[in-house]
UniProtKB/TrEMBL annotation:
InterPro entries: KIF11-like (IPR047149), Kinesin_motor_CS (IPR019821), Kinesin_motor_dom (IPR001752), Kinesin_motor_dom_sf (IPR036961), P-loop_NTPase (IPR027417). GO terms for molecular function: ATP binding; microtubule binding; plus-end-directed microtubule motor activity. SUPFAM superfamilies: P-loop containing nucleoside triphosphate hydrolases (SSF52540). This is Kinesin-like protein. Pfam families: Kinesin. It is found in: Cytoplasm, Cytoskeleton, Spindle. GO terms for cellular component: mitotic spindle; spindle microtubule.
Amino acid sequence: MEGEMRQKVSELPDTAGVIPRAVRHIFDILEARKADYSMKVTFLELYNEDITDLLALEDQSRFPEDRQKRHITLMEDGKGGAVIRGLEEIVVYTPRDIYSLLERGSARRRTADTALNKQSSRSHAVFSINIHVKETTVGNEELMKCGRMNLVDLAGSENIARSGVREGRAREAGEMNKSLLTLGRVITALVEHSVHVPYRDSKLTRLLRESLGGKAKTCIIATVSPSVHSLEETLVTLDYASRAKSIRNKPEPNQKTCKSVMLKDIYQEMERMKQDVKAAREKNGIYIPHERFVLDEAEKKSMREKMEHLELSLEKQNKEVEKFQGLYLAEQERRLDFENQNKDLKVNLESWKGKFLDFQEAHCRTNMLLREKDFIISNLLCSENSILERAKDMRNNLENASGDITVLLNKLERQAKTEAANEGLLSSFRDELDHSLRILHDRVVGSVCEHLKLLESTNEQTKSYFLAKTESANQLERRIEKAKNMYVSGVQCMKELADTLRQQSIIDAEQMRLSISTHATTVDNFLATMISEAEQILDDVLKSTSELKELLAFSAELQQTGLKRSLTSAQAMSKTSIDFFKNIRIHVARLIKLMEQNQIERSSKLLEFENEFKEICVKDEQAAMNKIAAILSGLTAKKTTMVSAYVEQLNERYSEEQKHLNLELCNLQQSSDNGKDELVAYVGVVESQFQEDMSSHAKLNDQMEGILHQCLKKGGHSASYWSHTQSSLHDLCKRSIMEADDFIEERRNKNENIFQEKLMSSARNDAEFNAITSDVLTSSKNSLLLDHEIRKMIESVSTTSSDHLELLNEKHSEGTESIRNISSNCLEKDYMANSPIRHRPRELLTNANSLEAIEDLRTSVPDLVAKFRSENKLDEIDKGKQFSDQRTRTSRSPLMPVNQYVE
């Protein structure tokens, strides 16, 4: 059962037994679930029907022959199970702890050497593992789940004759065979479902009662030998296993216990154990070894700590229980409220069901009445169609008769009244015609006068508009002239500044050249005096060198000051030019804004003039009479078209002038921007040249200082080098003078070229600016000339319109006079009276219907209802029965009218 359990690595060896493998499997499952658990183990031995605890420590108070084993009592628990009193439970945490306990207990088992087995087990062993797993519910309530696993190692049945045992060993074999025989009887009774199962005949069957016929899962591993000599034992073992395989248990999981209940059981068990210990001490006393005492004290301390922890947990759990009880009561109250609401809803549902049934009955009755009404209406429609046919015939006859009567009456009335009414009508017509002609003539004359006044006001507005435009054009010319003067003065200032800068650079170059020549002459004189005075060479060289350094520093400072002045003047000139160009741009923007405002004002005035002219024409057209409406509308349309075309032409010319002027102003802005960019570039070039000059002078000074330092260094070695030094310094001075002259000449040429390019650019800018200003002035003058031409055209149009109006007035006077003459000639002629016409109306048709025939056309509604009910086999409608309509109903809405006339 145990096999080999020790190995260096954590894995089990291949020869490990069932118990180590089961233990490893249990720990793997618990660790995989990450469960909070505790595990305890017990290990007992059943030898000669005596139970011995294999894990208990030896009692040192007894003699060696008496303290080998500790016997334990087997008792009933009152529930059909067995309880072992005094069995020691050891808490384990790892598989290694269990392996150690197995080794310790297995070493204490009773074994003996027989003829069949060198190490034969003389007892049965039961290794039990008790596991407690803590689980947490949804309400944070802790539950304890308990489980037990019994691993039983049964001793084999033994033939005393073959094993060769004697005396005490024979008794051991007899007890083993007796317990195994009892186990076989129990298995047979369970297989045959006997009423009595002999569990109590052996302690082994009492221990295994729950595993054999209880609610646990049981597995039997039969260990047999392939040897022929063990055939009898093999057959007996297989018979046990075969019969045990037929047992059918009903395994059930253990009930989950609350933590508080479990603690209560633990307290009770502790109290019982305390009482047992106290009774044992009072009876016999007890001797505890020091090691055992230390272990007991440690266990007591750990137990106290656990008890305190459990008490705290219990208190916490009690609080949570109270909390959940409150929540439960609240939920109960809510559930009661919901039940009451549910009852009310059910009552309402029953009432609504009754109402729904009533509505169904009413709906059936209503459907029946509707079908009855449809039947009546269809029959009434048939009757109505026949009545309509008869009515049409009668209507035709009546129309013919009424037509004849009407013609006859009209003839008679005209014949009677014509003669009496003609004279009055003629006189009133003559008076009305004269009055209408006078009114028409007065209105035409008034309209012509209003049109003439409107033309005069239009001419005055046009004159004021042209005067305002002339004034704005003159103001524009003055502003352009002012901008031109500012530009010329700015360019002149720039030229003067450039001349000053060039003269200053020439003066600075000459000063630098003279300074370099002076330096060279001083060096030559210095060398000559040094040759003549060889004794004081070192002191004089030092003094001359210091003086030369000061002169070079002074020269460099002068040159830097001159270049800085040049740069400052160039920057001032560029700033002045930039400000000038900014002023030009500001004035140009103001000019553009002013022109846009003038354009908007002109457009608004023209639109106002056009709208006023159209409104006046419409009013005059509406005021005219119907006879001359065509003439006035044509004249008004012609005048409106002429004015609209002229206004559109003016707008187009103004827009073209505006575009041309905007283009010229954009060119002016572009030219100013180009000049500004060129000036900025020139300033950048001057600054770069200034930096180059400064760097070249710094390099030259550094070279001179290096050469003087080398001269001083060489002068200290020997006086023989003075001649060579003199020639070298003389050549160096000449070369320096030549380089300085070349550098100054080159810079002067570059400055001259830049100055000439700037002059040429300034000349080009002057030419472009003059051209732009001349173009702007020319455009302004052309615009004024065009305005004068437009003014002349407007005056000619107004003159033509006034002539047309006068001609229209004359023609209208002639037309009204001709109308008077024609009407008087027409009314003075004789007229013929209508002669009476003899007309006899036709005879009316005599096929009118009689009263009996008309009564026959009437449809009786009660008869139709009775017919409908007899056809549908219905005697009563109000019985409330559901009516299943088997026919196809008329496809219409319930309130749709059916009795529509069909023509």
